[in-house]
Amino acid sequence: MLIYLGCSAVAAFALAIGLTVAGAAPAAVAHAAFALGAMPLIFAAMGHFVPVLTRSGGAEPAIHRLPLVLQAAGAVAVGVLAGALPGWALHPAIVAGLAAAAVFLGWQWRRGRASLGRPHPGLGWYKAALVCLLLALAAIFAGLLWPAGYAALRLAHLHLNTLGFIGLTAIGTLHVLMPTVLGQPDPLAAQRLRRQLPWALGGVAATAAAGLLAWLTPVGVLLVGGVLVDTVAGWLKTHGVRRIVGDGAAVALLGAALGLLATVATGFVHGFGGLPGRPAVTAFFTLFLLPLVTGALSQLLPVWRFPGPATPARARMRATLVRFGALRTGLFLVGGGLLSAGATAGAAPVAAGVLLFAAMLLRGLRARG
Ligand code: HEM
Ligand code: HEM
Questions:
Q1: Contact 115/51 with Cβ under 8 angstroms?
Q2: Centroid of ligand 2 to alpha carbon of 270 (angstroms)
Q3: SS in 3 state form for 15-57?
Q4: Which of 26, 113, 219, 322 would suit a FRET pair with 272, their CA atoms being 20 to 30 Å apart?
Q5: Burial of 27 per CB tally in 10 Å (0-12, 13-18, 19+)
Q6: Neighbours of 117 (CB within 10 A)
Q7: Is the CB of residue 73 less than 8 Å from the CB of residue 96?
Q8: Does the C-beta of 167 come closer than 6 Å to ligand 2?
Q9: Considering the chain, what is the average pLDDT of its residues?
Q10: Which bound ligand lies closest to the C-alpha atom of 158?
Q11: CA 248 vs CA 52, 263, 276: distances in Å
């Protein structure tokens, strides 16, 4: 299931790039990447990490199947926004997303309470991310029913989903994933996670409300940006830049954090109406999500494919996936920078990066244990 979802996410990213080239509505492109691609994968990754964070057994089969509900909801959202399905279909898609997120949050709550000793502070980030998803879906539902509030509720939906749901999940995971990728413990990671969560939540809340109260814009940028700077500074201090850049998965994770920082910085300008907001969606996808997901999958897919103790087959698959990691990250950052600045030529390096990863993925999956 995890491998299927990892591959589906890569396929959804390719679909998003294809839809852009075909001139589809920007909202359809955004949901191909975020709702169809990232949302189910995030649920799958949380299902993998929560038992680790709470020192409990693997997730139950019903929890494992939850991402499929989200995949269906995401597919319907893309269909409606691309004009292929009638508008009323959004309502059942939102209700399904709300139900799946609520069930998942309840499961995380129970796992946290049953944890042997205190759960790892990463769990708090996941619960907060799910609350953001619930609020974001409730906001767009309310907006569809109440046209006068649609504009502000749509802004709340998109910022709560991107910075809140995806952003909090990503930062919470990166603190744990970076030392795992490098095989070098980070004794300060748990402390940083505990310290940063209230600031990150404040930043997301300020950004979600900035659509109504523009003065909250700099508050949101500084809080979310500050958390990212603190995270990167912690990595550089613990691991050193050489070691991070020398590993194909770690360099992608660093690229993702820097890409998100750059995207958030543009919030300063688009939040005050100095630039349109759309390029921020492109930047979020290309500068942040692509390096993040390819970097994380290079580390996680071999573990999902060959579970249990480390084996040479797992090491070989990881070596295949991390090949060209630095080149890929460079292609995403350069192409994404060009695309966000309005130069369509940037699509070529981004597409090349995705194809490069897809090729390594096929090769890694084909190799036998
Ligand atoms: C079942 C799930 C979802 C549904 C039904 C849904 C529905 C919608 C709707 C109706 C809009 C307004 C489109 C418009 O005004 O043209 C919207 C906008 C948006 N949503 Fe979602 N959404 C879902 C999940 C997500 C997720 C998970 C994310 C990101 C993590 C997301 C990010 C966005 C963004 C970025 C926009 C603005 C797009 C643009 O106009 O460029 N949505 N969504
Ligand atoms: C902390 C960072 C951010 C802040 C403070 C912020 C703030 C704002 C504010 C205040 C607006 C409304 C502007 C207006 O009404 O003229 C806005 C619009 C928008 N933001 Fe952000 N934003 C941030 C990050 C992001 C990110 C990461 C994305 C991308 C995923 C994004 C996507 C958008 C979009 C698409 C719009 C315009 C929606 C439309 O009307 O079509 N923002 N932002």
A1: no
A2: 6
A3: HHHHHHHCCCCHHHHHHHHHHHHHHHHHHHHHHHHHHHHCCCC
A4: 26
A5: middle
A6: 7
A7: yes
A8: no
A9: 92
A10: 1
A11: 24, 23, 34
Q: Indicate the pTM of the whole model.
A: 0.94
For residue 359, what are the contacts with CB-CB under 8 A and spacing of at least 6? none
CA 10/CA 320 separation, integer angstroms: 17
- The Cα–Cα gap between 135 and 127 comes to 12
Pocket flag, ligand 2, residue 277 (CB < 6 Å): yes
pLDDT digits 0-9 by tens, 52-66? 889 888 888 889 889
Residue type, 351: A
pLDDT at 369: 57
The residue to mutate among 31, 34, 150, 159, having the most atoms of ligand 2 within 8 angstroms of its beta carbon, is 159
- Pull the structure tokens for residue 6: 């990892």
For residue 99, name the pLDDT band (cuts at 50, 70, 90): very high
- For residue 273 and ligand 2, the question of a CB distance below 6 A is answered with yes
Q: Within 10 A of 366 (CB to CB), how many other CB atoms are there?
A: 9
Ligand 2 in reach of 30 Cβ (< 6 A)? no
Taking only Cα atoms into account, the Rg of the chain, rounded to an integer number of angstroms, comes to 19
Helices (H), 114-215: 122-145, 150-159, 168-182, 189-210
Instruction: State if residue 71 touches ligand 2 by the CB under 6 angstroms criterion.
Output: no
Q: What's the 267 CA to ligand 2 centre distance in angstroms?
A: 6
Q: Are 355 and 17 in contact (CB under 8 A)?
A: no
